[in-house]
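Today's session is about reading a structure prediction critically. Students often jump straight to the picture, but the first step is always the sequence itself: look for stretches that repeat, for charged clusters, for runs of hydrophobic residues. Only then move on to the predicted structure, which in these notes is written as discrete structure tokens rather than atom positions. Here is the chain we will use throughout the hour.
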Amino acid sequence: MEKRIGTITILIKDRLQSAEINRLLSEHADIILCRQGLPFHDRSVAVISLIVEGTMAQINGLTGPLGRLQGVASKAVVTG
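Below is the predicted structure for this chain, in token form.
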């Protein structure tokens, strides 16, 4: 399978999901090239942006479980 470069944006409304988010990110550390996080304390939301390189199966293997968490949204954009 062809590896692709892309970004994943994670919006976190429920901070109680942080442990599960970090577990998933650690589980998929092999495809994460860069991670940047920004908490918005005054808006009760946090944003994590990732630069990733992997197959679509690997990328979807991360975004799918993230998106199924209560209070968490994730979206991937990849090269064609």
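Discussion point for the tutorial: The chain has a mean pLDDT of 96.
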